[in-house]
């Protein structure tokens, strides 16, 4: 069987057996198609270490994109290059599982990348952001509920947009389906719960989505719209950006920045890293550990304040 047939089988396996999202499968397809086009091999057994090495050099010299004026941008970031290599390693691992004699995936090392820097906003900025939607109209009530829910749960924006309006608000928790179709429990603060109740009480439509497009006509125009009213991730990103500007925050603020704030708030108030991992829905603890860099600064101040104090007092 030729490599393109094996690629198709691998993508089907990734989607069905591994339970990866369509978005992940599409990315794997794109990454592997690029590799196969470069390598010019017809069979998986033809993939050699030298081909992979040449591919890595080629990737390292590729431009990320071109600007609107046609001016070349910077080369692909190391982190982006690693996405291509991760897809290739997963493909080789699958082939080996199927009994095909291929290059060992362990021989493909990922490029070293600098530690991720978190985009964070201060506690004061966060407070102003959450208080920005102050009206009593449906759009303002919706936006207030969105911001409060993002901070209360630490949900990804895609998870928030997939919610239905039949949430049981008599409880302080509910389940969400995250990456890899994994289900986890998230928890509602009283403020978030009250904000959602106020928003739902104002709605007059029958759409199943929790958060919906409203438009200039407000609630009166909802009955005239056809199809699903469900809000998209992009719409929520624009909404957060709008309120960040309104709150006078100069930094770029996205739904993921609010997720960062949720995680760091937990850690700074004494939560353990494993609990934060579960609340965020991270499959790997290493992903959660990026937040410890923030709390390290707090620990440094504690060390300065208390270490050796008894000795100095003497």
From TrEMBL:
Gene Ontology molecular-function annotations: DNA binding
A single GO cellular-component term on record: cytoplasm
UniProt domain Core-binding (CB): residue ranges: 1-96
Keywords, ordered alphabetically: Cell cycle, Cell division, Chromosome partition, Cytoplasm, DNA integration, DNA recombination, DNA-binding
Gene Ontology process terms (BP): cell division; chromosome segregation; DNA integration; DNA recombination
Boundaries of every Tyr recombinase domain copy: 116-304
Record's protein name: Tyrosine recombinase XerC
Protein location: Cytoplasm
Higher taxonomy: Bacteria, Candidatus Lloydiibacteriota
Gene3D superfamilies, per database record: 1.10.150.130, Intergrase catalytic core
Pfam families: Phage_int_SAM_1 (PF02899), Phage_integrase (PF00589)
InterPro entries: CB, DNA_brk_join_enz, Integrase-like_cat_sf, Integrase_catalytic, Integrase_recombinase_N, Integrase_SAM-like_N, Tyrosine_recombinase_XerCD
């Amino acid at each position: 069987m030729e490599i393109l047939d094996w690629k198709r089988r691998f993508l089907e396996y990734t989607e069905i057996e591994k339970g990866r999202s369509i978005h992940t499968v599409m990315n794997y397809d794109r990454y592997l198609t690029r590799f196969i086009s470069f390598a010019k091999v017809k069979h998986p057994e033809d993939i050699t270490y030298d081909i992979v090495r040449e591919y890595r050099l080629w990737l390292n010299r590729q431009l990320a994109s071109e600007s609107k004026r046609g001016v070349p941008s910077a080369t692909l970031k190391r982190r982006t290059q690693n996405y291509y290599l991760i897809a290739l390693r997963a493909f080789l691992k699958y082939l080996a599982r199927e009994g095909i004699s291929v290059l060992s995936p362990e021989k493909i090392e990922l490029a070293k990348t600098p530690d991720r820097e978190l985009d964070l906003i201060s506690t004061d900025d966060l407070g102003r952001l959450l208080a920005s939607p102050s009206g009593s109209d449906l759009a303002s009530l919706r936006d207030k509920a969105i911001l409060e829910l993002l901070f209360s749960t630490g949900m990804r924006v895609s998870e928030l947009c997939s919610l239905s309006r039949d949430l049981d608000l008599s409880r302080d928790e509910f389940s969400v389906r995250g990456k890899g179709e994994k289900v986890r429990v998230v928890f509602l603060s009283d403020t978030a719960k009250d904000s959602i109740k106020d928003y739902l009480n104002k709605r007059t439509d029958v759409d199943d989505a929790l958060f919906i497009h409203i438009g200039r006509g407000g609630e009166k125009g909802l009955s005239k719209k056809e199809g699903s009213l469900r809000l998209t991730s992009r719409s929520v990103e624009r909404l957060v950006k709008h309120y960040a500007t309104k709150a006078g925050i100069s930094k770029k603020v996205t739904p993921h920045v609010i997720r960062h704030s949720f995680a760091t708030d937990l850690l700074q108030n004494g939560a353990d890293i494993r609990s934060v991992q579960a609340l965020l829905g991270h499959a790997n603890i290493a992903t959660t550990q990026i937040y410890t860099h923030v709390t390290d600064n707090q620990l440094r101040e504690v060390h300065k304040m208390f270490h050796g104090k008894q000795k100095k007092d003497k």
